[in-house]
Amino acid sequence: MKQIPELFGSMVFNDEAMREHLPKDTYKALRRTISGGTHLDREVANVVASAMKDWAVARGASHFTHWFQPMTGTTAEKHDSFISPNGDGKIIMEFSGKALVCGEPDASSFPSGGLRCTFEARGYTVWDTTSYAFIKDGTLCIPTAFCGYNGEALDKKTPLLRSMQALETQALRVLRLFGNTTATRVVSEVGPEQEYFLIDKETFLKRPDLINTGRTLFGARPPKGQDLDDHYFGTLKPRVSAFMKDLDEELWKLGVCAKTKHNEVAPAQHELAPIYTTTSIATDHNQLTMELMKVVADRHGLACLLHEKPFAGVNGSGKHNNWSVSTDTGINLLNPGKTPHENAQFLLFLVAVIKAVDDYQDLLRVSAASAGNDHRLGANEAPPAIISMFLGDELTAILDALESGKAYCPQQQQSMEIGVTVLPHFPQDTTDRNRTSPFAFTGNKFEFRMLGSTFSVAGPNFVLNTMVAEVLRQFADSLEGSEDFTKALAKLVKKTIKAHKRIIFNGNNYADEWVTEAHARGLSNLRTTVEALPTLVSPASVELFTKHHVLTESELHARYEILLENYAKTLHIEALTMVDMVKGEIVPACISYQNELACLVRRKMDCGGVDKGLEEYFLKKIANSSSLMLKKLNALEDTLLQAGQERGALEQARFSRDKLFAAMTELRLVVDELETLVANKYWAFPTYAQILNSVV
Ligand code: ADP
Ligand code: MG
Fold first, then answer.
1. Which of 480, 486, 501, 179 is closest to 351 using CA atoms?
2. CA 462 to mean position of chain CA atoms
3. Checking DSSP bridges between strand 258-263 and strand 123-127, what pairing results, if any?
């Protein structure tokens, strides 16, 4: 096997490969395009394409694809081979600049939220030069943005790239005010921690609910869950370890810096964290990570579950989005500095994020909303649906002192002053103690913890980037004309802390009292996806995203429609799967077991005088529960029929949440009871205990 440094990035057409395989002029022209300078000239594109093809073919590739991220949340690819007939019955391997730069997949089968009628099938994929091409499974993958005929964004990547641009523009304005003339680029960077479950594949294949919906729709609580806390950071089982090793290698080949791996809180749950990188690349890498987790698991006879809540009553999976902003000169703008000047700059960026999170809390909430994540947020394992920020006691005390102009440190009796005071150094571990906060400052970055495990990080990050860009714009506008910059800055910071400190909460976000207090503070509590989604098309949202050219009003509406539809469809599929499972397996299991018990009762009666108490007891219980199950099944089927009636997307989503989900929950309750009564040999589906312990 290759050594790791040699293996790393070996399947990526990265900077090193470009230098090696492109003529010097072409390389320079391409670099200019990558750093946002110029459009790619057709001639240059031809040379790049040809070199890329030779590079890929030498590494076993036969096809190429424009790899993109439609609104389904996953990735899409249509493969074309490099072959081209040369006229004498033979072929040559060919790849043109045109094919590299722009593709034209049939877009009609991807969700567009009414942006494009299905007969207007034309869609374009356009090379995103900021993300390197790579070879996956014998195919050269070109990362692309996906848009409609008139350039409307139909994917997750486009608004993300636009938001990075918006953030850069505004952050540079602020940096110039601090006299920074050297930074020419500002990028947002992300390190997403990915949680997942690993179970045995044979077990997985016996659960239609896991196959169809990614989560178990039935299942009684196991006798041993996570009560003993013996799984978290526990020793890796050999099969899991072998999987992780293989996954690391696959990811390294693709240039993904997989770094940390460990067992998570729930049985069969694990986590992988890469080293953070530029947000658009981190997005691509996270999509690849999720995809490869499934592929590699399969290779090991395992199934990887990425759903937010595969098992009721067992911790679900999230994705922690570690986010920071830095310059091309290597300054992390969220890192407190060593001098008063650096600290003044840090404080301004810090209060900008605080104001942004407070002003746009609802949008941040929407960015973490999905049918799957509704099972986590607000439960005692994930942040609540209320957005608040954790800064830690020390930083909060500093902000308090700045606001009041009073002493921060009692020993020194010094008052805090912007541009004068040196901040104390706070090591990361003192600020990272609160695990219940949805949005925590962790020393030099913020950790947004509400994302669900299946999420593309593109969504939450385009929201985050844009809202911070907007506040920086306001700050730059107000400071640019000021006569005394330091004075104006101090005033602005103070004013911002005063106006937005309600969003800071360092306590336990899981406590019931927090819900009451948050309400008193005027913070919103959008409990479900359906409650949260309309925010996306609110006047404030439209103004924000159009002002920064991240999404147009019609693109926003399209996204809103897609998300509503997605929510309703998810619940619909779950309900149908439940009906199938009950009719196909659970009813027969109940009947068979009742039959066995009834036969025994009869035989004992024939024997006369033999005690049949046990059989009768269970027979009666199962008969009663079965009748109840039939009632609940009928109710769910009736609700499904009603769900088929024509109504608007929002109404449909509301119906799914209020009626369909309620009917599903009631059916589940009685089926889970039956699972504990019916003999194992009749129950067709592996139990929670069997699934969670399926990897030995
Ligand atoms: P923990 O589980 O303690 O939160 P992990 O090591 O699992 O920490 O994950 C932390 C993640 O944060 C990693 O992906 C890491 O690369 C990322 N990270 C570290 N520093 C930054 C930063 N400045 N900006 C963005 N992400 C960062
Ligand atoms: Mg972690």
1. 501
2. 12
3. unpaired
Comparing CA positions, the residue from 294, 126, 136, 142 lying closest to residue 210 is 294
What does the pLDDT average to over 125-154? 91
Residue ranges around ligand 1 (CB below 6 Å): 189-191, 193, 260, 273-276, 320, 322-324, 332, 444-445
pLDDT tens, 468-491? Answer: 999 999 999 999 989 999 999 999
Cα of 514 from ligand 2 centre, angstroms: 25
H/E stretch holding 319: strand 319-327
Residues 22, 26, 32, 36, CA torsion sign: negative
The residue with tokens 């009560």 is 227
Stretch 644-659: mean pLDDT: 94
Sequence-ordered list of residues with C-beta below 8 angstroms from that of 97, at least 6 positions apart, any chain: 40, 42, 43, 44, 45, 46, 47, 48, 49
Residue 124 CA to residue 127 CA, distance in Å, equals 10
**DSSP string across 237-273:** PHHHHHHHHHHHHHHHHTT--EEEEEE-SSTTEEEEE
Strand pairing category for 123-127 and 133-136 = unpaired
Give CA–CA dist 167/171, Å, rounded.
6
Which helix H or strand E contains 582, and what residues bound it? none
Atom 14 of ligand 1, residue of closest alpha carbon? 191
pTM over 0.70, yes/no: yes
Which residue's CA lies nearest to atom 19 of ligand 1? 276
* DSSP secondary structure code for residue 224 in this structure: S
What does the pLDDT look like over 378-389, one tens digit per residue?
Answer: 776 777 899 999
